[in-house]
Hints:
- By secondary structure, this protein is of the alpha+beta class.
- The strands form seven sheets. It has an eight-stranded antiparallel beta sheet. The protein has a six-stranded mixed beta sheet with strand order 2-3-1-4-5-6, with helices on both faces.
- A hairpin with a 2-residue loop joins strand 2 and strand 3.
- Helix 1 crosses helix 7.
- The relative contact order is 0.08.
- Magnesium ion (MG) binds at residues 19-20, 44, 55.
- Residues 4-181 form the Tr-type G domain.
- Its EC number is 3.6.5.n1.
- Pfam families: EFG_C (PF00679), EFG_III (PF14492), GTP_EFTU (PF00009), GTP_EFTU_D2 (PF03144), LepA_C (PF06421).
- It is a peripheral membrane protein.
Amino acid sequence: TPLDKIRNFSIIAHIDHGKSTLADRLIQVTGGLSEREMQAQVLDNMDIERERGITIKAQSVRLEWKGCTLNLMDTPGHVDFAYEVSRSLAACEGALLVVDAAQGVEAQTLANVYQSVEQNHEILPVINKIDLPAADPEKVKAEIEDIIGIDASGAVLTSAKTGIGIEETLDAIVDVIPPPKGDSDAPLKAMLVDSWYDPYLGVVILVRVKDGTLKKGQQIKFMQAGTTHLVDRVGCFRPKLTQLDQLGTGEIGFITAQIKEVAQTAVGDTITDAKRPTDKPLPGYQEVQPVVFCGLFPVDAADFDKLRESIHKLRLNDASFTFETESSAALGFGFRCGFLGLLHLEIIQERLTREYDLDLITTAPSVVYDIELTHEGGRIELHNPADMPDPNRIEEISEPWIKAMIYVPDEYLGPILKLCQDRRGIQKNLTYVSGRAQVTYELPLNEVVFDFYDRLKSISRGYASFDYEQVGYRPGDLVKMSILVNGEPVDALSMIVHRSQAEARGRHMCERLKDLIPRHLFKIPIQAAIGGKVIARETIAALRKDVTSKCYGGDITRKRKLLEKQKEGKKRMREYGNVSIPQEAFIAALKMG
Ligand code: GDP
Ligand code: MG
């Protein structure tokens, strides 16, 4: 395809503004999908993605429109996957900015739009959901101009749901978005945009060819990884997989090369010809680093092998989480896993539970602390509160900070500022645009990882949006808080907290655990402690009678049922010393409420 007949674009949208629905309509109108196939959203592949309304893996679809080839790149919709988003954007020359006609511009839209602007993209505003009674396209246009600072006079008005404005959108893509540039005679230079594991094809790699041509049968080299592979398939998605002989300069498509694990295919890597390599890789390559760590342990120790197998399987398709075996006095054998963020953690945990049918205990999520040691000198990276060195060996502890951008209607601003303040936030900026506040805070990542996002959503009734980037490490007065149940430390619940927060956090944990741990035949003290010093304490009173005694001895089947039910319940509990703690308690106790 000649360069001037190609358009590569992505769709930027806040969650639920209609990105997937619009993409499906574009595919339908250009002939790739029937009405019936339209029913099942094509671009959201996995069940979890659909249920949560997010798109995790970038996908691309090739559309034919009036003699032009349009490549639509779907991008992940969550802050945890920011680097993948940046690479999908780098594979395009423009973006559709989809904004809900009733909701207007939201924070997540902003973060992606700014990235797109940085890539010198041409941005085409699309105001969607104009069928809604509350739709106010003129107001949204003004917002786009005020807040984002781009011309919205040429915005296309659509209803992806009812099919209004779809052809206009396609025409506008051809008119507004510039064709790609590149040198078709130069050595092959292609970007590895994304990869995923397919049980039939092996690893499928999504690529954008910048220079040269990528052909079936070609020997290629991954410049960062340093590996060579033989291309055995080349093609594109229309949205059905279509094999081609080659991908030319400016084109987006996929290749397979008998690769078994996605870990061998780093997003952002440069693919070149092994025999005639390009001299310079593409800019912007980054290795993805997990930022949140937690332990995953089987509730039933006998499930350890199953957990290991399941984790290995998941890893085949997601190279962005890491794991190593971990053993804990109380929890036995499990894995210490690293994730890109909390959503990523939840997705993996949910898949292990749901797809692999495992009962898991997740220990308190933790960020990576940087510890400078006193006597022996040197530094350590602390991934697990259990490995915290003795305080007198520590010269200084530093923790990662983020810059958070929160965008919220005025009426919820007060409680949001309080939330940020409570989480040790430092306010950096506060501006108002058309009835909404945009506030920027610096916050310790540690204060955000657990339930900040949930709290933010609940106090703003879902209206606040949140986006963040890391801004480096800063020293802090951080201490390890242990939780003791019946005098025994429960290491799954120990966490690193700021000294100023320790007492409140400790008291809260003890209160929560008091409700979450069932009564036993004896009294159970629950304590929070720093070093040897107890900072909070609760007691669970002893159970007075045997539960079966209320069956009056008469009804033997009822009695048996009750005992079976107890046994069932037991399976989902862990024993600490002689106290049983239900699985739910581990996560629930950590929520700040
Ligand atoms: P995404 O999260 O941006 O991919 O959004 P989806 O495409 O999944 O759409 C979110 C919700 O909005 C779904 O329930 C859609 O049916 C609905 N939706 C999408 N486009 C429109 C539209 O034009 N009008 C109306 N009324 N609803 C829409
Ligand atoms: Mg979607």
